């Protein structure tokens, strides 16, 4: 599993945004076919937010989450350094710097690292006069006045620098890869690469305001100069020690110069944007640490949202992750674990991403329906988790399954069906809706900590236990099931079973129009005909005997009991349940039309 604690390993899911070319081609074709079928949700503004992401084991790292119409994108922040600046040092080249100590004893630099941290002694902050030699953030100090710092601790390096005399000669070598980590403390002051110059004049306001939902990140592209109070000792790295503070007068002039460069008030008619790469221990700034560095958000993971799987549970278990979720794409990419301390924001993001997944999956179903006959139409597709029995430890393993209702069939896939041909094969298990029973599990009946569970039971005696992410998902599936059963039973019309009634062999028929009918094989006439509305109750012995109570005549309180003996009692009960479910659903035409995917 990819490691999130090291950015150079990338974000889990994809490497360099690699994607299955077959899936990309299918998506392109689907997009062309869909046309106006795409819901308005998919053309809405793209939400952004800064989040923390991990692999579930290591410490979360900051990233930016972006919901695009068809992809969920994770971005990491990179610093862009000038390639056209001749004064900027090149890696692996030693340089000699001559620094004069200020009147207050300061050298105007801060350092991190040391042998006790398995790091070289690195310059982490710079605040120098413009006429001095330029140290850069990311410079490793190799020597101080010919004294090597190769194997000294952090405290020893501080003492050597403090006692190096009024003029110090530093031998340094630049490590550009170290600069991004050292710049994190002032990242909010560094302009993004796509900086709009119109936003940084003296009267500018943020052009992009955050919506009421609070999901948009604060626009940090407009740099500003913090006061000394904004940089407190409590915000400093625990292993970082500053040299004596920089001269106040120099700090003031440097800060004024920085401010004029940002605001464009005294540097000519055209504003010049540089980045505050040098920050003194007292919060003052200078511009000679790393000139003109910019921030840039780089896409590192793209998870296709069509048929994607979003979950808050630890994969394969019934344990829910606090304040986090992950999204897995059908091409194998995944976001890692996305963390958000705000439960309201977390819930909003989960709902937003789920809505995109549902909308895109419904579009895919509608496209597949164009290739299917009218009696094979898909009415539902989505992910569930199935509890899989382990030896002596029931429901310890939860496996994602792709669940679909297609025509008369309930289909359970190991992986999502991309093409029409994928609906057949060893990776899919199917049942007929009128030979299966859907039952929502009460909370008190849950077998473990998984919530929103349901059971599928079949005439063959098979039971499968599933869970969904939310109550809304479960109710949506239940509604789709009832609609599918209604359409299936209406097409089926009737079902007849051989029974024994009053010691005579007979045919018992459940008819979509007429209800319950019984006719003896020895007689051409029906022994009874009851409408569905006349059925009052039913009971069975679990073996072969079924008792039915009907209101007869209709509109009275008089009950008539009919006793049937059926060798296929289980099948009969499933068909009865299907016909009754369909009749109830058919009473609401609006409900039946609501779920059509076309």
Features:
single chain, 598 residues, alpha+beta, PH-domain like, Pdz3 Domain, 4 domains, seven-stranded antiparallel sheet, 8 helices, 30 strands, 32% strand, rod-shaped
Report on this model:
By secondary structure, this protein is an alpha+beta fold. 19% of the residues lie in helices and 32% in strands. The protein is built from 8 helices and 30 strands. The strands form 7 sheets. It has a 7-stranded antiparallel beta sheet, covered by helices on one side. A 7-stranded antiparallel beta sheet has the order 20-19-18-17-23-22-21. A hairpin with a 5-residue loop joins strand 26 and strand 27 (526-530). Helix 6 (471-492) packs across helix 7 (569-586). The chain is rod-shaped.
**Tally of DSSP helical segments:** 8
Instruction: Just give the CATH class of the largest domain.
Output: Mainly Beta
Corresponding CATH architecture of the largest domain: Roll
**Describe the biggest sheet?**
7 strands, antiparallel
Could you tell me the CATH topology label of the largest domain. Pdz3 Domain
The radius of gyration computed from the alpha-carbon positions, rounded to a whole number of angstroms, is 35 Å
Q: Kindly state the percentage of residues in helix.
A: 10-25%
Oligomeric state of this protein: single chain
Distance N to C terminus? 40 Å
Q: Assign an overall shape.
A: rod-shaped
For the secondary structure, the number of strands is 30
Average residue pLDDT: 76
Arrangement of strands in the largest sheet: 13-3-2-1-16-15-14
Count of all domains: 4
Secondary-structure-derived class? alpha+beta
Low-confidence spans = 1-24, 29-38, 195-288
Strand content: 25-35%
């Amino acid at each position: 599993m990819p490691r999130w604690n090291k950015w150079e390993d990338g974000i889990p899911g994809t490497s360099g945004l690699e994607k299955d070319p077959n899936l990309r081609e299918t998506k392109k074709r689907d997009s062309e076919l869909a046309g106006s079928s795409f819901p308005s949700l998919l053309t809405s503004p793209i939400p952004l937010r800064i989040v923390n992401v991990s692999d579930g084991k290591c410490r979360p790292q900051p990233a930016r989450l972006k919901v695009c119409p068809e992809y969920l994108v994770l971005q990491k922040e990179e610093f862009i350094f000038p390639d056209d600046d001749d004064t900027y040092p090149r890696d692996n080249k030693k340089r000699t710097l001559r620094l004069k100590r200020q009147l207050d004893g300061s050298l105007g630099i801060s350092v991190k690292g040391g042998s006790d941290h398995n790091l070289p002694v690195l310059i982490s902050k710079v605040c120098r006069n413009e006429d001095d030699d330029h140290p850069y953030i990311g410079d490793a100090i190799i020597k101080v006045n010919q004294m090597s710092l190769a194997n000294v601790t952090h405290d020893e390096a501080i003492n050597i620098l403090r006692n190096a005399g009024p003029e110090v000669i530093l031998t340094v070598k630049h490590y550009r890869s170290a600069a991004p980590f050292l710049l994190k403390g002032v990242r909010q002051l560094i302009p993004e690469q796509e900086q709009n110059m119109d936003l940084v004049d003296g009267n500018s306001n943020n052009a992009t305001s955050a919506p009421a939902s609070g999901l948009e990140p604060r626009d940090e592209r407009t740099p500003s100069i913090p006061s000394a109070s904004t940089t407190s000792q409590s915000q400093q790295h625990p292993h970082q020690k500053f040299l004596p503070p920089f001269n106040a007068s120099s700090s003031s002039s440097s800060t004024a110069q920085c401010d004029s460069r940002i605001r464009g008030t005294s540097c000519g008619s055209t504003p010049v944007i540089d980045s505050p790469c040098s920050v003194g221990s007292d919060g003052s700034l200078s511009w000679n640490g790393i000139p003109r560095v910019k921030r840039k958000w780089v896409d590192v993971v793209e998870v296709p949202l069509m048929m994607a799987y979003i979950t808050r549970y630890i994969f394969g278990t019934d344990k829910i992750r606090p304040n986090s979720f992950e999204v897995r794409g059908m091409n194998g990419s995944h976001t890692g674990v996305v963390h958000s301390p705000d439960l309201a924001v977390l819930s909003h993001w989960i709902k937003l991403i789920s809505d995109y997944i549902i909308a895109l999956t419904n579009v895919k179903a509608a496209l597949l329906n164009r290739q299917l006959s009218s009696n094979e139409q898909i009415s539902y597709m989505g992910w569930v988790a199935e509890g899989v029995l382990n030896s002596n430890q029931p429901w310890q393993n939860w496996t994602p399954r792709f669940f679909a209702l297609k025509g008369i069939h309930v289909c359970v896939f190991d992986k999502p069906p991309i093409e029409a041909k994928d609906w057949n094969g060893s990776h899919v298990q199917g049942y007929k809706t009128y030979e299966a029973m859907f039952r929502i599990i009460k909370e008190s009946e849950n077998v473990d900590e998984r919530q929103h569970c349901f059971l599928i039971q079949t005439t063959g005696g098979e039971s499968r236990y599933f869970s969904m992410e939310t109550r809304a998902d479960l109710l949506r599936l239940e509604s789709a099931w009832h609609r599918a059963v209604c359409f299936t039973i209406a097409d089926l019309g009737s079902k007849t079973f051989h029974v024994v009634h009053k010691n005579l062999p007979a045919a018992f028929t459940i008819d979509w129009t007429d209800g319950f009918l019984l006719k003896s094989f020895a007689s051409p006439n029906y022994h009874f005909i009851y409408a569905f509305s006349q059925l009052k109750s039913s009971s069975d012995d679990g073996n072969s005997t079924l008792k039915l109570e009907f209101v007869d005549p209709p509109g009275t309180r008089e009950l008539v009991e009919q006793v049937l003996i059926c060798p296929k009692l289980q099948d009969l009960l499933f068909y009865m349940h299907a016909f009754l479910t369909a009749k109830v659903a058919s009473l609401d035409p609006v409900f039946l039309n609501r779920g059509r995917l076309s």
